[in-house]
Every structure is written in structure tokens, then in C-alpha cells.
């Protein structure tokens, strides 16, 4: 089969599209023939060599896949050969055939097209950051950092669908503002003077929930406009820098900083993700949330797809087709 490998850490040109042996499912695993896969920023970090969960080269990148079941490993129940599924990959999804654990493989409802569920990682991350980690309640004010990206564009829609009050989207360039407003955001802001602008728009009250995949200075700006009893959920550090804070303001105003990682759940508590996947599928079927596809590439063009994501000019989800 054909697959994309990171032969050594470095720029997008280090991705190689080549022939590799077909994988075989072990006990508890499923072999999936790929219909499409998606690009996550974690793939970029893994390729560079800066992602905590990244494997040592050579490795196949990619976190999630949509396709049909081609073979079942020993002990797998509840799935059938030929069944259409979405899954979190066990060993990289930039390939024509992908292995996944059965516990992380989910039948796709017949009324959902492949592209609707293509970004399983961003769909589940957005939902869990809002609901599990963020404990969002109806009517609350929400700020979504990196609102034009895969998780951000999904989180803006989900926040509205789940009953949020005002939803603010932060973007790196105002050229992305129209896209984010089209998702339902009440206001779109850039990072320059972000805290002051949010406070102005909320009569100095701040926001109740912040979703932050950027960290660094953006994280610190978020804390400045987080309301009393507010929660700031950190689920990435796209800036390459950690966020820093003092604990005193947290206990004085009962604020919380919460970490979340879908990858950690996949590794440590995989069975806990199924309810979230089912909830996400329900939102998709109701038309209340729609995965925003910003670009499509052939698997052999993975390096171009990575370059586009790194340019910070992409919006929505980038898909790869075998």
C-alpha cells in the first residue's frame, strides 16, 4: 500500500509518499481501508519533532481516519467487514490502509457523508473542551482562540448549538473574520489588545469560558479577561510557548485553568470517548454543527497540505484523500 512517512524530523519536504507493507490487525484491532483522513496541527508538531506523543522517525503521521472495515482482529465484536467507520488511528492515518483499536472505532450513521465525520479529532476535542473540561452552561459567554482553525471553527458552532450566550472568536488575521462570523460568532477579534477588547464588549465582566489551543501570550491575555468563576481550557500550544500565570487570582475569584487532551484519553481511557463521539454524531445529524472543510489534497500532496497549515492562512479542516 501507499503511505506518507516522516523519514526524519524537519520541514514539510521531509514527508515521503512511498510503498510500505500492508498492516495486519492484532487482537482487538481493526484494519480500515481509507476513504479519507485529515490533517491536525499535532501532525505538524510530530513531523517537526516537537510533539510529546510523536514517534521517532520513520513513522506514519495522522490521528483519525474514515473508511471501511477490511479485516477484524481476534476478539473484535460489534463491527463487520465492509462497515463504514470513523476511527482514531493506532499507527498513523496517512495511508491507504490504517489500523485502529476496536474501542476507538465507531460506525458512521448512514445519513452522514464521509466528510462530515472526517475530523474526528477536532469534533471530539471541541465537544469535550466545551462540555467535559469547560463545563459550559447555557447563556455563558465563550471565547474561542484560533477560531478559524479546525477545532476553533467547530467549537464556535458547538458553543452556539449548546446554548452559549455571546461567542467571541479570536483570529490571527482579520481576513478570517468573515469566515468565523459565518459560523455564528457574535464578534471576531485579533490577538492585539484582545483582553481589553473582550472586556469592553462584555461591560468589563469578561467571559465565562475560554478555549485555548495557542497558549503563550494568548493564554495570558485570556486570563486577563476571564470572569469570576470562569474556566480556561488549555488543549494545545500552537505558539510553541507555554502559558504562565499566578495562582493568587485563581482562588480569589474562583477561576480555573483546566488541561485537556484527546490524545491522552485515547491512550489512557479510550472507552470514555464513545459517549462524546455519539453526542457529536447527533449534533451533525441534526445539522446544528458542520465540519468546515477548507482544503482537499491527495495523500501524495501531504507536504503541500502541511505547508498550507503552517502558513496560518488556512481555515477549517484540511483533508487528505488516498
What are the main properties of this structure?
alpha/beta; 2 domains; 2-haloacrylate reductase; six-stranded parallel sheet; ADH-like_N; oxidoreductase; Quinone Oxidoreductase, Chain A, domain 1; 322 residues; 28% strand; zinc ion binding; six-stranded mixed sheet
The CATH superfamily label of the largest domain reads Medium-chain alcohol dehydrogenases, catalytic domain
Strand elements, count: 14
Helical fraction: 25-40%
**Class of the largest domain in CATH?**
Alpha Beta
Overall spatial form: globular
Work out the count of structural domains.
2
Taken in chain order, the helices and strands follow as EEEHEEEHEHEHEHEHEHEHHEHE
CATH A-level architecture of the largest domain: Alpha-Beta Complex
Describe the largest sheet: 6 strands, mixed
Computed CA radius of gyration, to the nearest angstrom: 19 Å
Number of helices: 10
Average pLDDT for all residues: 94
Structural classification: alpha/beta
Distance between the termini: 10 Å
Beta-strand percent range: 25-35%
CATH topology of the largest domain: Quinone Oxidoreductase, Chain A, domain 1
Explain what this protein looks like in three dimensions.
Pfam families: ADH_N, ADH_zinc_N. It is an enzyme of class 1 (oxidoreductase). This is 2-haloacrylate reductase. Its EC number is 1.3.1.103. By secondary structure, the chain is α/β, with parallel strands linked by helices. It has two domains: 2-119 and 291-321, Quinone Oxidoreductase, Chain A, domain 1; 122-263, 3-Layer(aba) Sandwich (Rossmann fold). Helices cover 27% and strands 28% of the residues. The chain is built from ten helices and 14 strands. It has helices at residues 41-48, 120-133, 150-161, 177-181, 194-201, 217-224, 248-252, 262-268, 274-285, 302-310, and strands at residues 2-6, 15-19, 29-39, 64-72, 84-89, 97-107, 142-144, 167-171, 187-190, 207-212, 226-234, 256-259, 293-298, 317-321. Helix 2 packs across helix 9. The longest helix has 14 residues, at 120-133. The radius of gyration is 19 Å and the shape is globular. The N and C termini lie close together (10 Å). The relative contact order is 0.16. The mean pLDDT is 94.
Amino acid at each position: 500500500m501507499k503511505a506518507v512517512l516522516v523519514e526524519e524530523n524537519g520541514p514539510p519536504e521531509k514527508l515521503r509518499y512511498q510503498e510500505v507493507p500492508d498492516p495486519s490487525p492484532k487482537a482487538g484491532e481493526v484494519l480500515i481501508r481509507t476513504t479519507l483522513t485529515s490533517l491536525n496541527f499535532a501532525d505538524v508538531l510530530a513531523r517537526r519533532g516537537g510533539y510529546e506523543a510523536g514517534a521517532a522517525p520513520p513513522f506514519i503521521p495522522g490521528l483519525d481516519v474514515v473508511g471501511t472495515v477490511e479485516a477484524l482482529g481476534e476478539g473484535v465484536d460489534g463491527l463487520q467487514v465492509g462497515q463504514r467507520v470513523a476511527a482514531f488511528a493506532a499507527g498513523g492515518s496517512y495511508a491507504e490502509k490504517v489500523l485502529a483499536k476496536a474501542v476507538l472505532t465507531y460506525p458512521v450513521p448512514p445519513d452522514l457523508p464521509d466528510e462530515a465525520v472526517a475530523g474526528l479529532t477536532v469534533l471530539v476535542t471541541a465537544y469535550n473542551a466545551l462540555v467535559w473540561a469547560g463545563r459550559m452552561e447555557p447563556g455563558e459567554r465563550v471565547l474561542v482562540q484560533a477560531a478559524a482553525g479546525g477545532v476553533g471553527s467547530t467549537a464556535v458552532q458547538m458553543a452556539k448549538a449548546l446554548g452559549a450566550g455571546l461567542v467571541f472568536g479570536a483570529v490571527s488575521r482579520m481576513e478570517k473574520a468573515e469566515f468565523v462570523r459565518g459560523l455564528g460568532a457574535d464578534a471576531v477579534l485579533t490577538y492585539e489588545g484582545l483582553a481589553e477588547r473582550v472586556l469592553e464588549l462584555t461591560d468589563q465582566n469578561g467571559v465565562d469560558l475560554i478555549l485555548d489551543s495557542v497558549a503563550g501570550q494568548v493564554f495570558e491575555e485570556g486570563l486577563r479577561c476571564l470572569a469570576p468563576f470562569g474556566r480556561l481550557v488549555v488543549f494545545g500550544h500552537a505558539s510553541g510557548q507555554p502559558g504562565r500565570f499566578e495562582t493568587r487570582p485563581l482562588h480569589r475569584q474562583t477561576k480555573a485553568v483546566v488541561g485537556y487532551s484527546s490524545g491522552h484519553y485515547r491512550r489512557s481511557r479510550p472507552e470514555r470517548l464513545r459517549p462524546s463521539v455519539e453526542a457529536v454524531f447527533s449534533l451533525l445529524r441534526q445539522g446544528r454543527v458542520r465540519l468546515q472543510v477548507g482544503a482537499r489534497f491527495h495523500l501524495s500532496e501531504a507536504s503541500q497540505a502541511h505547508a498550507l497549515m503552517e502558513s496560518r492562512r488556512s481555515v477549517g479542516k484540511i483533508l487528505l484523500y488516498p
